[in-house]
Write a structure and sequence with these properties.
about 260 residues; alpha+beta; 3 domains; about 50% helix
């Protein structure tokens, strides 16, 4: 007679093995998401962390649970193989769907928008409008967000730009205005403010500001700050006062 106690042990062992494999695959997916698509601070400001963990949590939990439910050595081997294969296929499909959902929401550019920074995301861009961007910016990157700037609209573009902004398409989402970040560098430096002013505004956040300055690898006098949009809240970007390169980010609403 088949030993019921052994059956439960077999199920638990199979589910544990499945869980281990699921966690290993999820770790690889996490590396892709958090080190390439959503590097810091985008995992915070673009909502990638919450979305990814929701997708992975469901995928990692359901697969092993289904294995626990169906695993039975009393079944014919081919039947057991088929059942496990169906679970794996469903789990892989769910993971790919989840990763695709995360991918289409990924940040593709950090835009200097005249006096602030704004991340923009693949899902916000209209494919038909990308043809208006400079040639090197028409394909949203897959290797992490790039840094770009905006030029001022020309006289014949002003009405179109204003109308689009009134319809909710702000300037950073209008590809015809994009330009290489190097062409916006002087404006970034002009608009940037001294760290001492940030300390005055956020007197209770001295330790947080100290940490950002340390992370930048510069002295405080070599840095400037500008406000930065997030998907759900506002941040502050710390930039090099000479090169305008963003070096650190603070979860402080400096608008």
């Amino acid at each position: 007679m088949f030993n019921t106690g052994n059956a439960w042990i077999d199920r638990a062992q199979a589910a544990a093995a499945h869980l281990g494999l699921s966690l290993a695959v999820s770790a690889l997916a996490a590396a892709l998401v958090f080190f390439i698509w959503y590097p810091y601070p985008y995992r915070e400001i673009s909502g990638g962390r919450e979305l990814f963990f929701l997708v992975v949590a469901v995928d990692v939990v359901l697969g092993p649970l289904l294995t626990f439910a169906i695993f039975n050595r009393a079944k014919p081997w081919k039947t057991l193989q088929r059942d496990l294969a169906v679970i794996v296929v469903l789990q892989v499909a769910a993971l790919f769907y989840g990763l695709w959902t995360v991918a289409v929401a990924r940040p593709v550019h950090l835009v200097f928008e005249y006096h602030r920074f704004r991340p923009i995301h693949a899902i916000e861009l209209e494919t038909s409008q990308l043809a208006k961007a400079p040639a090197e910016m028409r394909n949203p990157p897959w290797t992490g967000p790039t840094l770009i700037g905006l030029r001022s609209p020309q006289e014949q573009e002003k009405l179109e730009t204003v109308m689009a902004a009134a319809a909710g398409v702000h300037e950073a989402l209008q590809p015809q205005l994009w330009q290489p970040y190097t062409q916006s560098r002087a404006q970034v430096i002009k608009e940037g403010k001294q760290i001492s002013e940030l300390r005055k505004r956020f007197a209770q956040q001295g330790a947080l500001i100290d940490k950002a300055v340390a992370q930048s690898g510069r002295t405080e006098s070599q840095l400037l700050w500008l406000p930065m949009y997030g998907r759900k809240d506002f941040w502050t970007a710390i930039v090099d006062a000479q090169t305008a390169q963003p070096l650190a980010y603070l979860p402080l609403d400096s608008f």
